[in-house]
Amino acid sequence: MARPEIVLYHYGISPFARRTVWYLALRGIPYSQCLQPGMLPRPDVARLGISYRRIPVLSIGKDIYLDTRLQLPKLEAMYPELPRLGSSTPEQQGIERLLSAYIIDSGIFQHAVKLLPTDLPFLKDPRYFKDRGDFMGTELSAEGMNKARPEALGEIAAAFELMETTFLADGREWILKTERPGLADIEAVWAFHWLTGVPGALPAERFSAEKFPRVYAWIKRFQEAVTSAKKRLEKPKTLNGEEAAKMIEGSSWNEEEEGGTVDGDDPVVVAEGLGKGCLVAISPTDTGRAHKDVGKLVRLDKDEVVIEVKTAEGESVRVHAPRHGYKVRRFDGEKGVAKL
Fold this sequence. Notes:
The protein has two domains: about 5-80 and about 235-340, Glutaredoxin; about 90-225, Up-down Bundle (Glutathione S-transferase Yfyf (Class Pi), Chain A, domain 2). It is globular. It is an alpha+beta fold and about 350 residues long. Strand 8 (about 305-310) and strand 9 (about 315-320) form a beta hairpin. It has helices spanning about 15-25, 45, 70-75, 90-105, 110-115, 125-135, 140-165, 185-195, 215-230, 240-250, 265-270, and strands spanning about 5-10, 30-35, 55-60, 65, 235-240, 280-285, 295-300, 305-310, 315-320, 325-330, 335-340.
């Protein structure tokens, strides 16, 4: 059976989307893309039956994967004929996971956002702060960003120092001493790559190739490797929302439902009285948590929750989310609200 096609919903300046774009390029995996606006609404995503507001969204056939923390492992398990980017040893896999948690969960990216210069054109649009306020679950403003900047600079400087004096201290090209950039590099480099590419975000007196030569050289090598990989890969075809939805709805499943089980010993399953086929609501626990997706529970284990939802055309698709960073609750269909 032919492998289902990949469609990536994203926008170019999204630092999270770059993680998946880089992975696809470095692995040499072909895909199509459906480009999205930087702010809501995103009707192309909504027509898939999805309320999730974060980018990127990755479709592989009729299976739709939320969150780069799930997307990258799923892609890593696919295409065995292509060299993988992840490590095969438990020790190095642990480093990959810890780097992911350090950049995403410890607040490095949130601090990085506070360093965006408030004179950037999109930050002068009041819709941006309203949109990102919904995203963050708190009121945002240019004044608030300016007040938070000193502390954020300190946190980001500490992150640069960590990479300079530990992982890259011995002059290695890539974090795990690989011959080319690996998954560990993707997990770590993206926030540094993004910030150094935003003019005015980092003050030159504190951040420069002279002060952090190994970090800046690493970022440069990584970008060169990605650029070279993209030249070898066929340019992704750009689909509009209707074309992307029709491609997904007409595809096969990437994962077979058979074997999908609900772990009866999972604490959330026990507490909520969940079972296969019951209605549940899933949502992130950090950003975008007000946007909940409701569907029939297909699978739930320690790594992943899968629900079945209907597209605008009434076709079934399955939405996959990682357990880490996501809340799963039984949905009360009569009241139309989840127990949260």
